[in-house]
Every structure is written in structure tokens, then in C-alpha cells.
User: What shape does this take?
Amino acid sequence: MEKTYDLIIIGAGPNGINCGIHAREHQLDYLILEKGVLVNSLYNFPTNMTFFSTSVNLEIGETPFISHTDKPTRKEALEYYRRLAQSHQLNIKYQTEVIGMERVEERYRIQTKSDTYYSNHVIINTGFYSHPNNLNVKGEHLTKVKHYYDEAHPYIGSKLVIVGGANSACDVALETWQKGADVTMVVRKPDLYEKVKYWILPNIKNRIQEGSITAHFNSELIEIQEKHVLIKTPKETLQLENDYVLAMTGYRPDYALFSKLKIKVEDDENKTPVYNPVNYESNLPGVYLSGVILGGLQTSKYFIENTRDQARIIIEDIVAKT
Assistant: This one.
């Protein structure tokens, strides 16, 4: 008979690592399946990104996170979580994407692109960074359009349109402008997001006010062409010369995967997955949800710091039931 794990954890992000640490402490036979690399979302963050949270708020497993300043960098976070995974000898299988799951008698059969696994319990901790919100405009397929930002160097001397008005858009606008890009922001709302990082917001507002960065509010990008873009503003439709479009429009959970795993989602504007708020168990017995996916489309509702305790609660519930 095929090996059956006590627990399979889908996703090796910070919450997946935390679940693995608690599972190991309770001597559960567990396996973490990760479609990419360790903390895959953090790895794909901008190279020079600084977290809004303090290092203390990013700690898990009762292991201190020491950073050079109060706000840790992406590089420091990658090092911290790598050391956690190694020091706890977590059982992680990388480059293993889950594509389906079904209940077989009293256990779950989990299908990846290459193998099949069996487990009595499952924790889904897949985040949302891999699934950007599309612009849904003509020309979005062009190679000049990017939904992810790495660093400013490729955009030196270019005419750049940045779509969005929240943290990512403001970070990208400032960094690329400082490196010599001609930056235009297109913001659907009448102003920038009020909760933009407090050390960023005055800077970006000043750059807009002085005209260093152009910003069109109450506006939207309606078409992308090889050498131009069309922007609908309250007064007129503008045609601007353009080299790149950076769509910093946010991300969403992998609802296609939820469907494949048979996880129910509320039929409301936030499309929140169905779960028990006491133990985080989903509509499927023995299948739990953890991390930022609990907010559905409210992707700014949950972070590492306000979901850290979920791993302990879930693992204790599994141990109690076992």
C-alpha cells in the first residue's frame, strides 16, 4: 500500500514553514510540497524591497529575526527563512506543483504534475503572489507589459507607465524615477492609497506635486500599443509615447487551484474561501487553510504577522483529532 502521511502542507512560504516546524515538534509524519522555491513569493519580490513590518513581527518558530535596521530587506528575509528551514530540517519537496486532490476512503490523494501522495490531513498555504490581477485591455499580451517588478536598471532612460496607486506602484515609481526613467502613473482612484508606507507617501506626493513624476488620477489605461499607450482621464483620452508598462495592480489567490482541490468559496465580492474561524478547517474534513488566502480578494487583510499563530492552532487540532 502507498505511504500515507499524517500531514501534507501545500506551499513552503513563511506559514508553510511554520506549519512544518509545529508538525515536526508534534512528531507528525509530514511533507511540504512547494511548486517553486522556498518562500517563493518573497523570492519574487523586488530585489531592493524593504518590508513594512519590523523583523520582530516576521519571526516564526520562536526564532529571532535579526536585521540591520528596524525594517528588514528582502535579502535578509530570504536568509532568515532559509536558516529556519535548514535548522529544523524541514521535509520539503521543491518544484512540485499540486494540480488536484480527492478524498479516497479516509485519506486524501494529492496529485502533482509528476507524482501522487496520500495524507490524512492537508494544510493549504498557497498565498496569492503568483496570480496578478490583469488589466484586461487590448495589448496586455505585449512583452513590454510586466506584472512583476525586479529592479530599476532595465528601465533607465525609458518612458514608463506604472498602473496603480498603492505600495508597489509608489515604490516602483520612485525607484525607477531616481534611476532616470520618465515615469507616468495611472491611478484609477482620486488619490494614492492612504496606507502607503509612511516613509514613502510624502516622497511620492512631493515628486508628483513638483512635476518630476506625472500622475493621472481618476484615470485608466485603456489600450497598450507597441510605441504608445492610451489613457482615459476625466478630461480627455491621452496618447503617450511608451516603452514599458508596469501593472502594479495587485494579486489574487489561485481560485483555479481551489476549484481543483474542491475548496468552496463564498459567493460574494471578496470571494473568501469557506473555513472554520476557530480551527481554520475548510469545507473538507481534515483540510485546513492558512495564511493570506483566508482574505480572498482582500489581499491586504492578512500578513505574516497576523497569521503566525494559525500553524499552532491547526497542528494542535490535527493532533487532538488523531
About this structure: The chain has a mean pLDDT of 95. The helical segments are 14-25, 40-43, 74-87, 167-178, 201-210, 255-261, 310-321. The radius of gyration is 21 Å. Residues 74-87 form the longest helix (14 residues).
